[in-house]
Amino acid sequence: QVQLVESGGGLVQPGESLRLSCAASGFTFSDSDYEMNWFRQAPGKEREWVAQISTRLGRRDYAQSVKDRFTISKDNAKNTVYLQMRNLKPEETAAYYCALGSTYWGQGTQVTVSS
């Protein structure tokens, strides 16, 4: 079955960078043009879509709020999606989730941006 496992979260100071990983199993990136997404959810707030990449063609899309600072990428050999986050802001403290479309979800990884 499909499993998504996020890692890479942690505590960073404002302005610092962090790279999240999402290791996928139960399907193969190169078999189809799957849409892999990153979402985030801060306490008391609704879940917010952050970025998307398609696994075969590599099409990328970003939320406006992160467009110039975050980079989504993939490694088909590792069946893994990454989210490189730069110049992080305190308001981006949240649990970050990887998702296959909006059907399968990982357990999330916590990112805390604080001085």
Strands, helices and their partners?
Layout: E1 3-7, E2 10-12, E3 18-25, E4 35-41, E5 48-54, E6 60-62, E7 70-75, E8 80-85, E9 94-100, E10 104-105, E11 109-113
Parallel strand pairs: 2-11
Antiparallel strand pairs: 1-3, 3-8, 4-5, 4-9, 5-6, 7-8, 9-10, 9-11
Task: Describe the 3D structure.
The protein has strands at 3-7, 10-12, 18-25, 35-41, 48-54, 60-62, 70-75, 80-85, 94-100, 104-105, 109-113. It has 115 residues and is mainly β. Strands 2, 4, 5, 6, 9, 10 and 11 form a 7-stranded mixed beta sheet that branches. A hairpin with a 4-residue loop joins strand 7 (70-75) and strand 8 (80-85).
Provide a compact summary of the structure.
This protein has 115 residues and is mostly beta strands. Helix content is 0%, strand content 51%. Strands 2, 4, 5, 6, 9, 10 and 11 form a 7-stranded mixed beta sheet that branches. It has a 4-stranded antiparallel beta sheet with strand order 1-3-8-7, with no helix packed on it.
| Low-pLDDT stretches | none
Report the structural category.
Answer: mainly beta
Q: How many distinct helices?
A: 0
- The 3D shape can be described as globular
Biggest sheet details: 7 strands, mixed
State mean pLDDT (0 to 100 scale): 97
Helix content: under 10%
